[in-house]
């Protein structure tokens, strides 16, 4: 089961990263060019929200199924925090991805409350852009590529 969930989590991450890049740049361009917010922009933001939440749910399943999770019981907090690999997989990656999901969700919710195009794009650009930086900072690149 672990290998299957890990495979899905790894490949779905490409979709999340692509959508987050598209949504962030779409919002930045829309804001900078003072474009009208359209149904296509809404769909891009919504699809990014959906795929990122699905990825997070897959990640939660993977977290508890992974062999790294068992290290909490074997090594304890001090052992996990002392080992950079265990710390990445057990603490840093899950925490930062949770923060990224929260940023995406907050940005999406805030942008819906705005009445005009420029503030909508601004909210999406800020929150999705920060979420993109957070995601890129904690991807385990050595294991992923």
TrEMBL record:
It comes from the Bacteria. Keywords: Membrane, Transmembrane, Transmembrane helix. The chain crosses the membrane at residues 12-32, 44-66, 86-109, 121-144. This is 50S ribosomal protein L27.
């Amino acid at each position: 089961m672990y290998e299957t969930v890990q495979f899905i989590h790894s490949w779905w991450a490409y979709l999340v990263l692509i959508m987050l890049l598209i949504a962030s740049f779409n919002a930045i361009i829309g804001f900078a060019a003072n474009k009208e917010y359209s149904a296509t922009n809404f769909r891009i933001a919504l699809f990014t929200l959906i795929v990122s939440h699905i990825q997070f749910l897959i990640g939660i399943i993977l977290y508890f199924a992974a062999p790294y999770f068992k290290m909490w019981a074997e090594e304890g907090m001090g052992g996990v925090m002392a080992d950079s690999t265990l710390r990445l997989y057990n603490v840093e990656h899950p925490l930062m991805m949770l923060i990224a999901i929260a940023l995406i969700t907050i940005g999406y919710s805030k942008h819906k409350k705005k009445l005009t195009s420029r503030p909508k794009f601004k909210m999406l650009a800020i929150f999705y852009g920060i979420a993109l930086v957070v995601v890129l900072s904690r991807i385990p690149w050595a294991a992923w590529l």
